Amino acid sequence: MGNWLVDHWLSVLILVAWLGLNIFLFVYAFLIYEKADKYFYTREILGFCNHTLRKPLDHNLTFHKLVAYMICVFTAIHIIAHLFNFEHYSRSQQAMDGSLASVLSSLSRHEKESNSWLNPIQSPNMTVIYATFTSIAGLTGVILTIALILMVTSAVEFIRRNYFELFWYTHHLFIIYIICLALHGMGGIVRAQTEDSMGESHPYNCSKSFHEWDKYVSSCRRPHFEGHPPESWKWILAPIALYIFERILRFYRSQQRVVITKVVMHPSNVLELQMRKRGFSMEVGQYIFVNCPSVSLLEWHPFTLTSAPEEDFFSIHIRSAGDWTENLIRAFEHQHSPMPRIQVDGPFGTVSEDVFQFEVAVLVGAGIGVTPFASILKSIWYKFQRADHKLKTQKIYFYWICRETGAFAWFNNLLSSLEQEMEELGKIGFLNYRLFLTGWDSNIAGHAALNFDKATDILTGLKQKTSFGRPMWDNEFSTIATAYPKSVVGVFLCGPQTLAKSLSKCCHRYSSLDPRKVQFYFNKEIF
Known about the structure:
Elements: H1 2-7, H2 9-35, H3 38-45, H4 51-54, H5 60-94, H6 100-105, H7 107-110, H8 128-133, H9 136-153, H10 157-162, H11 164-171, H12 174-183, E1 191-193, H13 195-200, H14 203-206, E2 225-227, H15 232-254, E3 258-266, E4 270-277, E5 287-291, E6 301-304, E7 314-319, H16 323-333, E8 343-348, E9 360-366, H17 371-385, E10 395-402, H18 412-425, E11 431-437, H19 442-450, E12 466-468, H20 473-483, E13 488-494, H21 497-510, E14 519-524
Parallel strand pairs: 9-10, 9-13, 10-11, 11-12, 13-14
Antiparallel strand pairs: 1-2, 3-4, 4-7, 5-6, 5-8
Helix pairs in contact: 2-5, 2-15, 9-12, 17-18, 20-21
């Protein structure tokens, strides 16, 4: 085996390059499919399936990243293999020792049919760089590599968070990428012996007598080669068609008229938009994509719906977190100017849709991450108003963690209404909510301590007192596990990754090994 590898190392490298390309195309087809946001539609289609079957669909962005990493790995394998190939091609073309590689490299110079070549470097004076930039495969390969590097490097979290526009526009290089990918195989650089030539000169019989090719005493003829027909389009055609269909559908939906019925400016520079759109139907925890042409013609940003399905409008809360959101808020602050036009696409499903499928639900929101739970809490209020007996959920624990006191004002009225509604219906124990303030100083704490005996909290005006610091999650999970020893508990988070790790560990730690006892299922909102 070792000797065979030494004798046929070029064939092995070509095989590696070919396999790398095909695996790469297969993976890229998945990436295009996933890029089309079809997971959101697939989630809706599989709505009748149980939670376990739908849960993987909620990790579509994780899958997107893993597929991208695989593309990078197989691209590197493909490039390295071809670099070795071209080095061997160059040496074979320049060799004057009459070896088999030298004879095969000179085929194009002895044949009337110039397309019968095997070595893409067709003369001793041709350099590897020249062959690369004058061939379809080489030029498209360079463009593919540059586009991939730009897309990957601009997608790192730091750039994505702080320079979203750079990430957004650079990521659309995938259009150039797909075009070059479809053209990449047209150069026919990977070649094979023709069927007719195989009948006249089989490699097994004629490779050792190459000095006697075409001679009267030999039955072997000079071999003829041809390039493999391009096949990349076969792999990417269906995903591209699916993606184009999805873009047409989204364009059609986005062109439907959106009426802004109310604009509210909240503390901490948060804008609330209440809107109506014909045929719009939503579920709790879903989100929409929003575009404001006067701010940016091409940029679409996701925002969680804060309204309930029972309301006759849908709303979003927008926090200033970058150039686009700052410009949008500024546009709505100027009341004397015409109301900016808003385009909406969606809604799209998320993990929060499953909240009412659990007997006990734990909702954890960090800052503006409270928005999906505002929709859930509003829906609960309406369900109690209408005496909805189909509600499966028996208990909800709600934790809201904020850095500044002004943030609590966003949904103060909602929480106050829920408090009152629970009291009137005798269901005070149904909702247990806790507010945590992480950005505080001694003055705020001292002021709260002096007024602790008052009926309402001095910071929020609610009956539930504000806690300072962060929740002790082990204590919280232990209390829930003790109170509901045989329940299925759904834990839902909209917040940072560090908090997600802590909650995920607690879910595993406090879930019983006995499937008949308490089980915690962790779910995280991912955009």
